[in-house]
Amino acid sequence: MQHLEPIEPSGTYLIVQHGNADDPLVFERQNRPHLVKLIYRHLPEVCDILEFRIYGNRLEMVLEFLPEQELPEKYKNRLHQPLSNLFNAYAKAINKRYGRKGSLFRVRFERTRLR
């Protein structure tokens, strides 16, 4: 398993998450608003959402993480956790809605520090 650099406070990152085996993330039109709702539920505690795009089999987000002094204590050493919570919540909703089992997403989301 590849080692990914931790997300750091005050950093701006491109986050990319793919469907498992390039399976779709959005099965029907109503899935897209639900995913957007979850993005705005889980991420604003730790970052500003600069941009996001939802494609058929991937999600791309540009996120600017808050400075350390503005982060909730529970996330100071775990900035990836709200992203994980977002992906887990969406996967559970899709699996329940469509009677799926197994992983909706690849194991790890990609991250590239932009600044």
Total helices: the number is 2
Q: How helix-rich are the residues, as a percent range?
A: 25-40%
| Oligomer designation | single chain
Protein structure class: alpha+beta
Order of helices and strands: EHEEHE
* Count of spatially separate domains: 1
Q: Mean of the pLDDT scores?
A: 92
In total, how many beta strands?
4
CATH superfamily, please?
Transposase IS200-like
Give me the CATH fold name: Alpha-Beta Plaits
* % residues in beta strands: 15-25%
- Poorly predicted regions are none
- CATH architecture name: 2-Layer Sandwich
What integer value in Å does the Rg equal?
A: 14 Å
Describe the biggest sheet?
4 strands, antiparallel
Determine and state the CATH class: Alpha Beta
Description:
- With 115 residues, the protein is an alpha+beta fold.
- The chain has one domain: 2-Layer Sandwich (Alpha-Beta Plaits), CATH 3.30.70.
- The protein is built from 2 helices and 4 strands, in the order E-H-E-E-H-E.
- It has helices at residues 31-42, 81-98; strands at residues 12-18, 47-54, 58-65, 110-113.
- Strand 2 (47-54) and strand 3 form a beta hairpin.
- Helix 1 (31-42) runs antiparallel to helix 2.
- It is globular and about 40 Å long.
- The relative contact order is 0.29.
- The mean pLDDT is 92.
